[in-house]
TrEMBL record:
<feature type="domain" description="Anti-sigma-28 factor FlgM C-terminal">
    <location>
        <begin position="34"/>
        <end position="85"/>
    </location>
</feature>
<dbReference type="InterPro" id="IPR035890">
    <property type="entry name" value="Anti-sigma-28_factor_FlgM_sf"/>
</dbReference>
<keyword id="KW-0678">Repressor</keyword>
<keyword id="KW-0282">Flagellum</keyword>
<dbReference type="Pfam" id="PF04316">
    <property type="entry name" value="FlgM"/>
</dbReference>
<keyword id="KW-0969">Cilium</keyword>
<dbReference type="InterPro" id="IPR031316">
    <property type="entry name" value="FlgM_C"/>
</dbReference>
<protein>
    <recommendedName>
        <fullName>Negative regulator of flagellin synthesis</fullName>
    </recommendedName>
</protein>
<keyword id="KW-0805">Transcription regulation</keyword>
<comment type="similarity">
    <text>Belongs to the FlgM family.</text>
</comment>
<keyword id="KW-0966">Cell projection</keyword>
<keyword id="KW-1005">Bacterial flagellum biogenesis</keyword>
<dbReference type="InterPro" id="IPR007412">
    <property type="entry name" value="FlgM"/>
</dbReference>
<keyword id="KW-0804">Transcription</keyword>
Length: 95
């Protein structure tokens, strides 16, 4: 009874050699790198957005980030429930 075909091992080795030679060829050639360019219109939009951000909002965001990272941020269950009620009403009335 033949358990393993000895020819299969050679086929795997040939495949691995082929992959290795392809990698060497790619490494020896200069690879083209991806480039990203932002249009002048997009740059103007970004500048306009940066100028319109309210400083109090930035302070609030920084404060929230600090609370979340330190573990002191508490969720108000009442406010959360108020926001979820419309969703669940529409979910159960549609069915």
């Amino acid at each position: 009874m033949k358990i393993n075909e000895t020819g299969r091992i050679g086929a795997i080795n040939n495949y691995q050699r082929q992959i290795e030679t392809q990698r060497k060829d790619l490494d020896s050639k200069t690879r083209r790198k991806d480039e990203v360019s932002i249009s002048t219109e997009a740059q103007e939009l970004l500048k306009a957005q940066e100028g319109s951000i309210d400083s109090s909002r930035l302070e609030r965001i920084a404060d929230l980030k600090q609370q979340v990272s330190s573990g002191t941020y508490n969720v108000d269950a009442g406010k959360l429930a108020e926001k979820l009620v419309p969703y669940f009403k529409s979910f159960f009335t549609d069915k």
